[in-house]
Amino acid sequence: MNRDRILELLRSVERGDVDANDAFEKLAHYPFLDTPHARLDTHRGLRQGQAEVIFGPGKTVAQIVEIVAALATTGEPALVTRVEPDIADQVLAELPAGDYDAVARVLWYGPAEVSITGKGTIAVVTAGTADLPVAAEAAAVARRLGNKVELLQDVGVAGVHRLLASVELLRAARVLIVVAGMEGALPSVVGGLVDKPVIAVPTSVGYGASLGGLAALLGMLTSCASNVTVVNIDNGFGAANVASLINRL
Amino acid sequence: MNRDRILELLRSVERGDVDANDAFEKLAHYPFLDTPHARLDTHRGLRQGQAEVIFGPGKTVAQIVEIVAALATTGEPALVTRVEPDIADQVLAELPAGDYDAVARVLWYGPAEVSITGKGTIAVVTAGTADLPVAAEAAAVARRLGNKVELLQDVGVAGVHRLLASVELLRAARVLIVVAGMEGALPSVVGGLVDKPVIAVPTSVGYGASLGGLAALLGMLTSCASNVTVVNIDNGFGAANVASLINRL
Amino acid sequence: MNRDRILELLRSVERGDVDANDAFEKLAHYPFLDTPHARLDTHRGLRQGQAEVIFGPGKTVAQIVEIVAALATTGEPALVTRVEPDIADQVLAELPAGDYDAVARVLWYGPAEVSITGKGTIAVVTAGTADLPVAAEAAAVARRLGNKVELLQDVGVAGVHRLLASVELLRAARVLIVVAGMEGALPSVVGGLVDKPVIAVPTSVGYGASLGGLAALLGMLTSCASNVTVVNIDNGFGAANVASLINRL
Amino acid sequence: MNRDRILELLRSVERGDVDANDAFEKLAHYPFLDTPHARLDTHRGLRQGQAEVIFGPGKTVAQIVEIVAALATTGEPALVTRVEPDIADQVLAELPAGDYDAVARVLWYGPAEVSITGKGTIAVVTAGTADLPVAAEAAAVARRLGNKVELLQDVGVAGVHRLLASVELLRAARVLIVVAGMEGALPSVVGGLVDKPVIAVPTSVGYGASLGGLAALLGMLTSCASNVTVVNIDNGFGAANVASLINRL
Amino acid sequence: MNRDRILELLRSVERGDVDANDAFEKLAHYPFLDTPHARLDTHRGLRQGQAEVIFGPGKTVAQIVEIVAALATTGEPALVTRVEPDIADQVLAELPAGDYDAVARVLWYGPAEVSITGKGTIAVVTAGTADLPVAAEAAAVARRLGNKVELLQDVGVAGVHRLLASVELLRAARVLIVVAGMEGALPSVVGGLVDKPVIAVPTSVGYGASLGGLAALLGMLTSCASNVTVVNIDNGFGAANVASLINRL
Amino acid sequence: MNRDRILELLRSVERGDVDANDAFEKLAHYPFLDTPHARLDTHRGLRQGQAEVIFGPGKTVAQIVEIVAALATTGEPALVTRVEPDIADQVLAELPAGDYDAVARVLWYGPAEVSITGKGTIAVVTAGTADLPVAAEAAAVARRLGNKVELLQDVGVAGVHRLLASVELLRAARVLIVVAGMEGALPSVVGGLVDKPVIAVPTSVGYGASLGGLAALLGMLTSCASNVTVVNIDNGFGAANVASLINRL
Amino acid sequence: MNRDRILELLRSVERGDVDANDAFEKLAHYPFLDTPHARLDTHRGLRQGQAEVIFGPGKTVAQIVEIVAALATTGEPALVTRVEPDIADQVLAELPAGDYDAVARVLWYGPAEVSITGKGTIAVVTAGTADLPVAAEAAAVARRLGNKVELLQDVGVAGVHRLLASVELLRAARVLIVVAGMEGALPSVVGGLVDKPVIAVPTSVGYGASLGGLAALLGMLTSCASNVTVVNIDNGFGAANVASLINRL
Amino acid sequence: MNRDRILELLRSVERGDVDANDAFEKLAHYPFLDTPHARLDTHRGLRQGQAEVIFGPGKTVAQIVEIVAALATTGEPALVTRVEPDIADQVLAELPAGDYDAVARVLWYGPAEVSITGKGTIAVVTAGTADLPVAAEAAAVARRLGNKVELLQDVGVAGVHRLLASVELLRAARVLIVVAGMEGALPSVVGGLVDKPVIAVPTSVGYGASLGGLAALLGMLTSCASNVTVVNIDNGFGAANVASLINRL
Known about the structure:
Helix content of chain A: 40-55%
Strand order of the largest sheet of chain A: 8-7-9-10-11
Radius of gyration of chain A: 20 Å
CATH topology of the largest domain in chain A: Rossmann fold
Structural class of chain A: alpha/beta
Number of helices of chain A: 11
Order of helices and strands of chain A: HHEEHEHEHEEEHEHHEHEHEH
Largest interface: A-B, 37 and 37 residues
Strand content of chain A: 15-25%
Largest sheet of chain A: 5 strands, parallel
Oligomer: homooctamer
């Protein structure tokens, strides 16, 4: 239950459209909602203005089903990230109303068209084919959180003319998410081309000295472009969440 | 020379207040301005919307003086960061118009009162006395870039009631910078209390397993609060720069 | 054979209830008991006051069966940790008297109800669903060692109000075990809320910069709460063992 | 102001010995006490049952003097750790009532004889001459917190007979602090000899592969003795604080 | 072909027992022997005085068979290390004259009884059941290289009395190999009990902060016992080879 | 003594210009030349085609003087790298014929004008003012080894238009040396702009997550441009040496 | 499409052999060629003078087929690296014109005999059987890029006489690629024997302290031979690409 | 007091040369000897057969003087390692009978000529001038422990012909100590040339990727020569001690 829905509920009571008892029932789930396996922090919607996003890894099918079903009782959409195809199949067998994006590995329970509440466009820029799953996760999450998203892919620093060909698109964005593995240099170059906040996402793509994404992570943290901040390796969701918060300011 | 100053210049020409030749002279410094030791990227102001900030370490007094003087010829304010007191004294002996903040180790050449162009308040939150220099740098830079800043200091996670006593202040900010060394847990707790973007700055404060700030850095990158992004260790300037960009959206 | 059982044996001899020869037979297993694969340190019970706990990983089914059976001949209960379900099934097929806890992955041979010998309550606090196996191991071991245990789960630092809602429970404990992955900040916050020893258990939950639990480990070691000590990553057993020792003081 | 002092104050009011207004004055410093440079968490004494200990490094002489003086107004003793001799001299020049221990690098403002409130003895065991400063810090802090302390020094694992010669002393302790650099093996050996909690303190003593204490730290975390917990490198204070908390249970 | 066999050959020629042409044929394989996949350094036997030992991992069954067969043509025994059971089965199907030790994972082609050429006993000491495969490899290799070996297992530092019970055996050895995972403290304790060279073998046994054997490795390198040298993690073969060289001095 | 000088010597003998005895005297210094502190590998000139370069750090003034003087007796020029100004002053006091470059920290004993033997131009490209000393070392060494050098400085990836403005210069080079600290992204961008070998030199410039140059090093090793190879951190000399070898092919 | 093919095309137009319209069609693919999954940088051929090489890992069979087919439409050969046998089988089922090298794991679409355009020989030197796949990749790529290649295998530093036996072959090469795992010492020794550029390729061969190739990587970066540069772990392709560029100078 | 001196003492009693009371006085110092700052393990001489060696760093002049003086009362020679010149001067001012070796940084109190008790020669081999202090320490300690020592210096792997020129000397040694920084490859090459145990000593010589000696350490641990064992970085003393133990077998 997010801030808007709560305000809407309270205004319905104010207008006499909703009975105080019914409103109470809905709010009674707050401040948190205990399920057998998780104490859902539904107040976070209130505190942070956005819906619950469930991190899939380490959760069983049964746990995911339980959490999604519990959120459904509050009228809340649910977004489950990092869901492998076989898990998605099993969850959808139980709760068929969902929509699964196999590239982004994201499972969505909510309206097919999310209304746009972000003020501008979020650009998601990615260096190589191999980084696509993380970029796709970022794009999918940003869209589900109510933002217009432009995805610009396969524009690496070793072919800088391809990136420069898209400079208008980059400069038109209000926030940028730049996804890169290997040496992680793309956020520095993009950061130098725009005057907006750039959120860098290192990926675990690479081998040897990429150390599972650490090389890209360190490169982004030491970027010479001063409009770059960084999230954890492969954390497309986190980048999208912050970009969405910024885009609603 | 930032975007506003260039637009102002062009409008002066438009209005007939400034002669095209004079305007040309001023613009001629662009796209970059060569000094003997540095090719100043004065276009960055145009591309990124903010003035040149000079990173002090590794530069000699002569180099700092040269750069500040070059910027002065374009009418640009200059902000030099990480200036130790003895260096500041020597630069001020050459260019006495500056203002030195000894806690933030920041040297400023420009108007005493910078006009506020940011839309909201930037909160700078810090865990301990030892983190103060980094927090002070972040606050000083944010102010010089035209933002209203609130500094909340010495509110560590091991005394969480102190933090909760300031929750109104935290929630009133449009962007938050959270500075912490040791285990770097403060951004997670603050991130859970607000629905705004939080920029986490790990500091090199600590000993032993803090590994010069790496423990805090890793902690912030793996934060369970999904509204947190991270900059390099001790990078108060970078955090302030991004916060300022966000605050102008 | 632990200290109590030895004392009891000696007092039985003192009272004439047990024949010296029989007592000798029992004690003859000391100071250690050789099986084909392990020289069991049964004196450790005497020296450290607690029963033998067998670390499961790296041992074959045959080795576990052999050790449990050997301990059974001394009348000693046995606790085997980190036992995967398929291993447990095979051991139970040989020695059906055991009790397997699939969440905690602990296999127990001994009385169904262990008598409470600890003086107070051990609180086991955990940040997320994914940390539950480690927390469950800690709780199961602590109970089998004779302690009253309270398990408080899913109270992360990014939703600090959930933690504060349980502050009475926390402050009522005599010792606390706090289990957390990711940034490992929970022990710092809990440590600041209580005046009792806190044993922090980092978990390998997380990805990317969590480095298999190293981020949480470093965070806990550099905790700003000075009542926190740390055990190895995922070492729920070790935390429970020390908590139990403290709780018997 | 610790718990005992507050209870005592309230009982004085109860008995009519102290005027409610005066008591209020004293309590008014709570829950925290702002000085220009630090918001002292004087409630921590209430929450954690022990006095404020000030971590010296990174604080100026002026800041230390200010904090000690502020605590003095509440009648609280103050213990400052990691104070180098020249800093101590300067603080003592301002506040001459203190007592400086040059080996432990600890500065104490309080009664010469602290009354013993711990229930048993804390043994502080150390491997080599070079580890002595950390062991001395642990011993000094433990004593100032009201504990009987036995210091057993220079008993390394490569001369295990020296350690065994002191096994009675080890087994007589209620809690043990074991300080070791290099390979950090001493806590494992000591842990195997006693049935009490052992707090291991790695030191930064060593060179090369000791990696500034990391080798000892990792060794202690992976100890095969299951009654060992670990604190940060060189953190004699932290070990003493936890040992004192345990000793008061 | 080792030094002894070459000398023997030359003496046979000297004595007229062997025809120079035949001797030439045998020596013609030197200085190295090319097989399709490997240039065998058969001179190493001459230079280092011991037979070729083949490191199994990364080699196909075909490659192992080829190398063993090539050595067989020179009358040389062959020892293949780190051979998993399924590989061993396949090699033995091709070359059935071998002898496979499943615990040590060593495959031997040569005489059932190797004559003892080492001057004293090599003691192989190990801390836990889990370290046994590495210790068994060390013992098997040392025996095959012509040494008398004593294997002392399951004597960890946390039960130091078990180790002390075997001190005579330890002191009777001419060289010692000490195998340990976890904190790797055993070589320090053993090193302090004897006046002979101790070769420490860290194992990858452990979890979390054991970092795949790095904790034990660092611990052994920083050992306070000055008669300890170290080989690579799990390198039972290397330890045995050096011990054998020393034992032949 | 390099290959050319040796050939020249032999041809002089061939032509009768030089007496065989004298030639022998000169060659007699070969294959190496013992000084009290170093066995100079003067054959390396023969084997590798270039003069001896002396790595300054860790050598005393006396040692440097001794080596330079010994080379002088063979008619060989000498290049000493990483010479701090005070050391240079002392060496020059003894051997005044040298030429010291304070930015490159290089001391040269040889002809003022080295004849150009490299076939094309070596471009030395650098990202920031702080990287200049390493770039200057590379440029100075390359020049002294007989190459035409172009130094392009202060062209970082966050201002990619500055780099593109110099693309002709980059593409005109036969070999490129790219020097960068921080995230080390410059070689990737330069590598994508040219079809020549690029030698990347990470520098130790940066702080925090730059880890003394490791971030740049890892970034360069994982570069997505496939014409990049890497040398050690700050190793301007090594890069110049390889570039010179390539430029003579 | 590489530089030669473009020049040839333009000259055909010049000579009237090709119609401008047809030429335009061919060039129209430039500067890049979008396929559904990748924006192929076919200009890189123009900028860097060599054909597109596709890095196999992380790409699906469908993606590899799509890219190879797209390149085929431009008449370009394609080289796919790191292709496991099962993937190769599937790609070849779709596009049977390819040639798969199972040791080098390289899939080639192009002429069976590539014409030699490199000026000299590239020597590929390898230390052990286990390093062969990486060395084979380097050799295969270098050959496909138009170079004469000599492969010298199984010449490790611990049998230095084997290496010296091949010194003529080494010194005859124009560029050398040296592939080594474990301690990575081979490039240093080879580097000392030749006066040509040596490209060192660390491999992930080894165990324990080899840290997945990091030990070899660090060893090569700190090589005392100053003609050595380094590429990423297992990056046989990268080494071959740079060697080929050098060999065409 | 070492084993020989004790045996000699006991035999003097046996022969009647020494009074039992006097002998008792001498032995009474055993098993250890307490000084105010250190419990000297004089039994170690008995257990390990060699005299006490004092590790200098971290000890004050007063402590060194005290320990040396205490040993002197037992008639024991003393060897203090890692003594910087200024410390040596101060100790010698108090105890002038010592002999200081400034290169090896070793201070010796004992007979000028130590009688040779080792059976063969210990070769100390070193790669570069910068490694000399560690090699000199190893040589000095080995000599003081009664061994014949050959020091072969400045024979690096990049000039392998220099090493081969000394192969007779290498093969004549009974034990070898090989000291190397940078990539640490020398022990592998030396190990391949001899059939004796090689003790490798990594040094902290190098910069950048040498990581303070870690690169050399890892290289030596993963050496492909199987007669190599390793000691800690810069641990010349430890290598000499083990070599001496081996040389007395």
